[in-house]
Amino acid sequence: MAQAGQSKGFAPKEAPKLNPPKNTPISLSHLAKCDGNSPSYPIYIAIMGTVFDVSGNTAYAPEGAYHIFAGKDASRALALSSLKPEDCRHDWEDLAAKEKQVLNDWFTFFSKRYNIVGQVRR
C-alpha cells in the first residue's frame, strides 16, 4: 500500500469541491452497513472516529483494492499500512509515534479528497 503524503502537500491533482464537514453521530452498526455491498447505502470509511464518504472511488467498492476499509474505522490498518482484516479497527492510541504520523498523514489525505459526513458514536 502506498504511503500517504508522497504527493506534494497531500493535495489532489484537481481539488474536489467538498461540503462543509458534518458532525452527525454515526453508529458502528450504521457504519458497517456502509461497506459498498448494498446500493441503498453510501461507502464510508472512518479514521480516528471521523467518517468520510468515499462512495465516488471504486477502490473502496466491493471489487476494489481497498474495500477492506469500507464500513469500518480503519485507523490502525492505515497507520500500519496494512491490508489485513484484523488490523481494520479503531484502536490506534498505543501505536508508535512514527505510525501515528502515518495515520495523521492519511487523515490529511482523506480530508482533502472526501466529504466528512459525521463522527463515529461508540
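Next protein, fold it too.
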Amino acid sequence: MSRSGPGGTGDLDYVPLEPYNGTTRTGGDSLVQNLNVFYQTGDIAWMLVSTALVFLMIPGVGFFYSGLARRKSALSLIWLTMMAVGVTSFQWFFWGYSLTFSHTAGRFIGDLKNVGFRDVLAAPSTGSARIPDLLYAVYQGMFASITVALAVGAVAERGRMLPCVFFMFIWTTIIYDPIACWTWNPAGWVSRMGGIDFAGGTPVHISSGSAALAYSLMLGKRRGHGTHELNFRPHNVTQIIIGTVFLWVGWFGFNAGSALGANMRAVMAAVNTNLAASVGGVTWCILDYRLEKKWSAVGFCSGVVAGLVAITPGSGFVPAWSAVIFGIVAGSSCNYATKVKFYLGIDDALDIFAVHGIGGFVGNILTGFFAADYIAHLDGSTNLPGGGLTGHWMQLCYQLADSVSGFAYSFGGSCIILFLINLIPGLGLRASEEAEVIGMDDAEIGEFAYDFVEFTRDVVNGGDMLDDESKYSADRDSPLPNEKAFSSTVGDDHHRSR
C-alpha cells in the first residue's frame, strides 16, 4: 500500500492480513513468528471494548437489584453481583472455558484439554475465525459472570452469602457451561440442530431466570410475605435508573460484540438493541400508567431491560423494523408475567424470572419468526435459511426445543444443587429470622450501603433516634422489639429523611 502527494511518496507501516496456517494448538510460536498477522486489529479492538462493556453490565445489575430491595439489604445485592465476577472468572479460567468452548467438545459439554487456559492463545476460536481463542475466552467469561450475577439476585433479603458463593461455582460448572456449549459451540446439539441464539437468549436469560425461580422456591418466602410488611416501594429509584443506564450501555457490547468482529452485522445488532430497549421501556410505562395513572420510572427501567433481554437472541439475525415488535411484545409479556409468581406461590422478590426467563423465551420465539438470511450474512460469512417469515417454519420448532430444554435443565438442576448444598452443615441456604429482621447487610456483611444512622432510623422504630443511640447489631438484642413495619410509605419516608 502506498501514498503520494506534495510531501512525496513512501510506504505505510501496514501489516497485511494473512490466512491462518498454524498447526499447533496455541496458533504458533510467538518467538519466531508474528501471530497478529492472522487477525484484523479493528476486530480485536472492538472485541476488547465489548468485553469491557459487558463487564460494566455487572455492577449495573447490582445497582438495579439493590435499588429494588429494602435499604437494610441493599449492599448485599451489590456484593453478590460483584462476587459473581470473582468466583465465575476463576471458574471460567480453571475449567469453565474448556467445558464450554474446547475445540474437541461433544454435543452436550466440552472436555478438559484447555483447563487453566492451557493452549489458549492465538489459534482461531470456536466462535469465529476472526478472533483468537484467548480473546474469545475473556469475552465469553464476562457472559458467564453476568449470567451468575442475574441469577443470584434471588437471594434478596433472606439468603445467606456463603452458600450462594458455593452455588455460583457449582451452578456455572453444571448448568451454565453445558447450556452455553450446546448453544454456541459448533459441536453442540442445538447448534447442529439449527437453533439460533445470537447473544444468549437461552444460555444467559432463560438459564438465569429459571435458576432464580428455583432459588426463590428453595429459599421459601420472605418473612412477612403477603402482609403489609412487604408492601414497600423500591428504596432507591435513582439507583435503579443508574443500574439501567449501565445495563443499556453495556448491552451494546453484549449484543453487537456477539458479531465477533467490527462489521455491519455488529452495527445492525447495535441498532436493534437500542430500538427494542426504547420501545420496551415505553410499552411497560404505558401499561403501568393504565393501572396506576402514574408515569413510573421503575416501570420504564423494567421495560428497557425486558426489551434488551428479548432482542438478545435475535439482534444479529432480524431486521431493524422487527425490533419494534420485540420491544412491544417483551414489554407487555414481562409486565404481565410479574403476576406469575403469585399463581406459583413463589416469592421471586426481584421478578427475575418474569423479566429474564419469560423475556428470553419471548425473544427466542420471535427470533425464529423474524430471522432473515440477509441480516445474518452482514458479517460476510454466516449463512442462514431464515425464519418463519421467510417460510422456514421449522426454525420456530428449533427455537422452542432450545428454550424448553434450557428452562427444564436449569430449573431442575438448580433445585437439585440447592437441595444438596442445604444439606451440608454450615451451608444452610436461609438466613435466620433474626438476620432477616436486621437485614442481610448487617447480619452477613457488617457494612451498609448508607450511613448507619439512617439504617437504624428505618429499621428500629422509624423515629427520631439520636446519634448516640445508634448501635451496631453486635451491641443490641435481636429480633428488634420495636421493629418498623415496611409499609408503602417507606419510599416517602426515605425522601423526607435528613
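About the second fold: The first helix runs from residue 41 to 68.
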